[in-house]
Amino acid sequence: MDFNSGQFWSSPITYAVFLPAVGALVMLLIPRQQEMTHKVLALITSLVTLGIGIYILTQFDYSAGSRLQGVVDTNWIDAINARYIVGLDGISLPLFALTLLVVPLCVIYSMDHIPAPGNAKAFLILILVLETGMLGSFVAIDLVLFFVFFEVVLLPMYFLIGVWGGEQRQYASIKFFLYTLFGSALMIVAFLALYFLTKNPDGSAAQTFDIRQLQALSGSSIGRTTQLLIFGGMFVGFGIKVPMFPFHTWLPDAHTQAPTVGSVILAAVLLKLGTYGFVRIAIPVLPEAAQSWAPIIGLLAVIGIIYGALCCLAQTDMKRLIAFSSVAHMGYVMLGIATLTPFGINAAIFGMVAHGLITGMLFFLAGSTKERYHTLEIRRLGGLLKSAPRMGWILGFCSMASLGLPGLAGFWGEFPAILSSYNPANPTRATVLFGWSNEVVFRIFMVLAAIGTVLAAGYLLYLYQRVAFGEPKEEFADDPHIHDVNAFEWVSWVPLLVGIVLLGVYPNIVFSVTNETVAPAVQQIAAAVGGG
Amino acid sequence: MLAFVAPSIDYHAFAPELIVVAILAILVLVDCFTSDYDKSSQSSVAGFGLLLALIPVVTLAMDGTVRGMFGSPESGYAYVVDTYSLILKALFLVSGYVVVLLSQTYIAEGDYWEGEYYQLLLASILGMMVMASARDLVSIFVALELLSIPAYMLAAWRKRDLKSDEAGIKYYLMGVFASAVMLYGMSLIYGITGSTLLTEVAANLRQFPAGQVPPIVVLAVVFVLVGFGFKVSAVPFHTWAPDTYEGAPTPVTAFLAVASKAAGFVALMTLVFVAFPGNTSTIEPLMFALSAATMTVGNLIALRQTNIVRLLAYSGVAQAGYMLAPLAVYGVSGTVGLQAIIAYLLIYAAMNLGAFAVVITAARKTRSGEISSFGGLIQYAPSLAVLMCLFLFSLAGIPPLGGWFAKFAVFRALVGAETGWGYALAVLVGINSVIALFYYARVAKTMVMDPAPDGDLSPVRVPFSLRAALVITAMVTVAVGVLPGLVGHFTDSVTIGAALGS
Amino acid sequence: MGNDVNIGYLTLSAILFGVGAIGLLVRRNALVMLMCIELMLNAVNLTFVTFGSMLNDITGQVVVFFVLVVAAAEVVVGLGIIVAVARRRPGATADDLRVLRG
């Protein structure tokens, strides 16, 4: 396999994307009764995919992260000039790697945690299909291809929540589904508008879905109002996925009801599809509109931070609390993106990875807690450090990471994002918010976001204190079900914990990759709007 | 006085129709000479005949020349075999074949008239094939009646069942009323233009400058198109569809929902693109209203259906709305819109027939059409449940299943028109897709998440013919979704009227 | 034939068509509804013949033959279905047919 050959069948990216789907197909043919075969097959598939991923990581030329690598560009739908274009660069590589890591961990965790009503076959098939969709979304460089992969993710998640979820699963699953589909309907109209309205410099219609070309043309031929509208369509589509305030209401329900593994994948990877869409598509393709929208994105991001944090303080359910904390954390990511500076967008990408590791880990913990206590009511829990000390320590560690303790991954997602809003792009540009300049607006955001971190410390410490400290409650005092971390849990958790420390101590692992890509992309944005 | 000159007939071009006629004759003969208790040969002959007729369709397509009959190069032809008609004939033949597969056990096991059933089915398919080639008001009318009259009888096929009788009579009265209205419109068009040949009609209608079209022309055009509005079950002419669909035998319902509706669209497209290309000011607002009303009303009523066949009926109404949408911008989008509708028809046929195939198969065990009877399907018939999810989500337009490309093609035609109306309709299609997802997902939810209503988990026996139908439709649905180029390859080359001198 | 006469025929056929259409929509006896359809089809025939003679074109009259034949086939089928219903529900009108809700 030659990494940069550009052939469909010789690109490892193609294999990494479609291998899980092939694994799912094979499992489809094996009878449901052979649960162990299914588990082993799913594990092998996801591990081999991870292996291919590691191979890709070794082949990736880190000194040229701004260039798309391993590009495959072949015909797909000739009628509309939609092509099968995949490739990786510094923006997508961290998220691609995150996905590759999280899925096998979820499969390992599922080895002895297939939630009721069982059926390991269907459960694991759905996870593998999900993996194909997620990986495909991160490597697609064609709008239609991206759209297709983006949607592939929907159905498995719908069934994961709807079949294996909690008591309100049907309501939660359909809500998730309808919200996302509504967003993607607007998104596809926006993509088509780009296709038809983007013109080459010589005035001929470009009629392309190739993100690279659209980025090079950067929508300069489209009227300003239309640009704003198209960006608005993408904004709703991606914003629902992130989820941004006020489109976030599906998230707490989906998270609370989803099975543990579903929550982990949702938090760790699916939400990133939205933010990734902003960084990869919406902003580079329509930089001018992005400038106009940036204050609004920033405002909604900050509202999300504060609102998510306040909601967390009011929660009585551990999983729901973590879900709302996701709203807040994704707010930091969006704030970083909204600054439109290399620093901010770098922070955002780091924040995505960090949030994926930390919140994924928190949902694992919530799932294991639920398994032991059969409840997630915070006031009924307590004394985790006594009854399951290792798990208690891990929960403490993750809470610290989540509230942004320096030295752990969460810090590098939040702190630079806040810092970057001190110096947004085009500081003097007047915004739609009272006509204040960008600089003023974003500095207000900065202050609010900083208050958000204080609130985050509040609710996470509250959670930890109630769940882990003190004596175990009477009803659970001598419950034999409450045991400490078991082998499957160790195997699936350790890589995430290591990742959290590693990224915290040495954040350059991600920054060095992303910075290469982000800087040129943002410079292009600056150039497109005439340096602001 | 001119001597009568027999028109020259291109037998190659006519071969598909002739084969179907010949098989029809053979069916009658076989019917006469077989015992009343064993008519199993009928379905085999019918199915074989439909596949046989595909051969000349393929050879004609490979040949690629446009063949016209009954006319002259100057005036245009009354009967044309071009890519447009060939691809639709192939659609009718294949979906007819799938309907035969669906019917085999259903008709054989019930107390039905097996022999005549397949004869009428073939007659109806013949009418559709003629419709695909017809380029003259009279031949369109004859084709329409040829496809409709057997369908009226098929709808009432369970004649000892009051529901089926009711289905038949409602379909009949509405259908005949619609064709009378259409015929009156045709008579007016003939009076205005002095010809029934579509190309001449178009040429003569062009004499009216835009903005000065006499009301009688508007009336005539609207009458003709409204007549086909019934056929494609466009709101407000859809009222027959749910009742007829529920009452008719389910394979016939599948036939009506797919082939008959496609035939209606074929006629609409032929008329709009060949006969009335210049009447955009009349047709576009009409189609906009029809399309918007059809998709919205169809979806909203579908939301509260409890019977799966009625749900599919209303979903079919809504889908017709999406298919009508490109006609609302046909003046600008032109061929792109035409190709979008054809692509939609092809994909719609596969996924909708598939959904009906699952309904028929599941009903063999549950003996019910209620959605609740599908509960627990995933437990006792997992593959059926997975296939049904496949078809339903394809109908909802979720990639990577075929339906997404159909919707995408419609979006492309609408957005590509770059008019306010086009954008408005595109957004409406988007909103409606979300509404539609709700009821498709409800069926999926029942199958996957609800328990079996009577706790009976014995497996469903799937006869070979139904298995074949399921495999064909599922393969098409998935293949088109992953590689839309398959459909694009066919529909891309489709143009209408290129060889007609217009 | 004078033009006025033709206009008269066209008006007559329009009236006939209208009577048929309204009859179909308001009457509830299946047989009467069938007769209304016949009325509509014959109004169409009259229009075609009139236009044929106005345009001095044979097509208009040829179409009539097609319509006649098709109408005959349609009526046969329609009567068949109506008889099937009548045998199970004597004296049924369209309003009684409501096993299926519209």
Report helical residue fraction of chain C. Answer: over 70%
**What percentage of amino acids of chain C are in beta strands?**
under 5%
Radius of gyration of chain C: 17 Å
Q: Can you count the helices of chain A?
A: 20
Number of strands of chain A: 2
Structural class of chain A: mainly alpha
Question: Judging by the overall fold, what is the CATH architecture of chain C?
Answer: Orthogonal Bundle
The CATH topology of chain C comes to: Helix Hairpins
Count of structural domains of chain C: 1
Percentage of residues assigned to helices of chain A: over 70%
Strand order of the largest sheet of chain A: 1-2
Task: Please give a structural write-up.
The complex is a heterotrimer of chains A (532), B (502) and C (102). Helix content of chain A is 70%, strand content 3%. Chain A is mainly alpha-helical and 532 residues long. Chain A has one domain (12-528). In chain A, α4 packs parallel to α11 (260-285) and α14 packs antiparallel against α19 (487-505). The mean pLDDT of chain A is 88. Chain B is an all-alpha fold. The relative contact order of chain B is 0.10. Chain C has one domain (3-96): Orthogonal Bundle (Helix Hairpins). Chain C is 78% helix and 0% strand. Chain C is elongated and about 50 Å long. Chains B and C meet through α5, α6 and α9 of B and α1, α2 and α3 of C.
How does the SSE layout of this entry go?
The complex is a heterotrimer of chains A (532), B (502) and C (102).
Chain A (H helix, E strand, L loop, with lengths): L11 H17 L6 H25 L9 E9 L4 E7 L3 H19 L9 H20 L3 H10 L1 H11 L4 H29 L13 H7 L6 H18 L8 H8 L2 H26 L1 H28 L3 H22 L2 H32 L10 H4 L1 H14 L6 H12 L17 H31 L18 H19 L2 H21 L4
Antiparallel strand pairs in A: 1-2
Helix pairs in contact in A: 1-2, 1-4, 2-3, 2-4, 3-4, 3-11, 3-14, 3-19, 4-5, 4-6, 4-11, 5-7, 6-7, 7-9, 7-10, 8-11, 9-11, 9-12, 10-11, 10-13, 11-12, 11-13, 11-14, 12-13, 12-18, 13-14, 13-17, 13-18, 14-16, 14-17, 14-19, 14-20, 16-18, 17-18, 17-19
Chain B lengths: L10 H23 L6 H24 L3 E6 L3 E6 L1 H27 L4 H20 L3 H19 L6 H32 L4 H8 L9 H17 L8 H8 L2 H26 L4 H23 L5 H17 L5 H4 L1 H32 L10 H4 L1 H15 L6 H14 L3 H30 L14 H19 L2 H8 L10
Chain C lengths: L2 H24 L3 H26 L3 H30 L14
